[in-house]
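Researcher: Here's the sequence for the chain we discussed earlier.
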Amino acid sequence: MTAGLPSQVCQTSSVAFGTASVLDYTPSKTFDLTMICGVLIHLNPEVLPQVYDVLFNASDRHILLFEYYNPTPVEVNYRGHEGRLFKRDWAGEMLDRFKDRLELKDYGFFYHRDPISWSDDGTWFLLEKR
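Model: Thanks. This is the structure I predict for it:
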């Protein structure tokens, strides 16, 4: 087991990958960067504060979020299902939750019609601990 990750871990000299629920993860150390991509959009909004805490507590410096964005929380029908896809201001919620301890460093957008884009319409935010 590495850095609080489950036994299903693939590790290189500087990166460890594992399979686990973010809700069950307790970091045993901090990392230069914690990142979440395409996960927050599928979580029940009630658990977001817990996930924000995990991302913040596991980070030594940076947090990178890559998710669908909307300035106000909305639920989107996902493949005919309700309660499976949400859009909101993830970075804004983290900045509000960790006032005076987190700041926005950069952000950007991937557009599905950009020939070099590897994603559909997603927004990324780079946050930094103060």
